Amino acid sequence: MDTIAISSPDTNTLQDFLPLQGTDYVEFYVGNAKQAAHFYKTAFGFQSLAYAGPETGIKDRASYVVRQHKLTFVFTTPLRSQNPMADHIYKHGDGVKILALKVEDATDAWQQTTSRGGKSYLDPVTLTDETGEVVLSGIHTYGDTVHLFVERKNYQGVFMPGYRKWETVYQPTDTGLLYVDHCVGNVGWNQMNTWVSFYEKVMGFRNILTFDDSDISTEYSALMSKVMSNGNGYVKFPINEPAEGKKKSQVEEYLDFYDGEGCQHVAMATNDIVKTVTELQRRGIEFLKVPGSYYDELTERVGKIEEDLAPLKELGILVDRDEEGYLLQIFTKPVEDRPTLFFEIIQRKGARSFGKGNFKALFEAIEREQEMRGNL
Ligand code: FE2
Fold first, then answer.
1. CA of 293 to the centre of ligand 1 (A)
2. Which of 321, 316, 312 lies closest to 353 in space, CA to CA?
3. What pLDDT sits at residue 1?
């Protein structure tokens, strides 16, 4: 059994200069937002929430907002080619542009982070409509990815000014996805510590967990990872960098095809992973599969768990235990044709770690996929 000690968020000794209330939303720049939103509704069970575009006075883009419990995703497409959003999509393909964080005071968040060396993406701006105001500000992080700070305490509208309610008769039922558990960034060779120190210095995060290449190398490929958490533990950003192995690291494959650093996966929490994954598979989501032999030693490795083994094995759900409990997790295949962004579905039963005991089986499954793409 793996034992993993996680540092607890320390709220007493350090003053948290960037208090975060959680993930506000994740915005994706995609080639066709109308169709992407439909996919996330149909396959993942999101519901239509809001829309912005020419009809709402936004001339250069169309944005569709979908929501499932506390998860909010925005899909944005530029309407013309001469546009930085179009350049982003040309370079990276569909991917995560904005990891938006909810704050009490977006002006203060911008001042605190830019005064500590954060590069401004958006100076504080107040957007207003008849239902109130939203204050936005933002800083750059790895690659072309940005963090927006969203202050919406004085806003009653459906999403934010510029958007209107997205009325539609098509609202597929949800799949039990609840909130963003963590978002992982892939950064370049030897860049992990640069970004660890960015999150420490600029955003006041702490490194709560480290995996080196001895933890997570397989026969062929390796990576290193450090998990960064904000003060209250609501926001967690693991940062991966590739490591030398016999063959190409999965992080290197990502960097090649994304053409730079970016968000590798978004982990979405559920309270009933068997039910959620059964439904996602029924709706066409494809998951990485580990060999059936993984389940032969499972009970020995993780001890007693409440779930029946048979449905876990049938669905390919992985289990890991740390000192505080256990977790169940599964990973989708990339959700676009480039081998870049994918999703994790996670159910935590006490464990606050990230499934280190599954890395070997999982990375071997990823390598089988890489090999089929000719990228190993
Ligand atoms: Fe993860």
1. 23
2. 321
3. 37
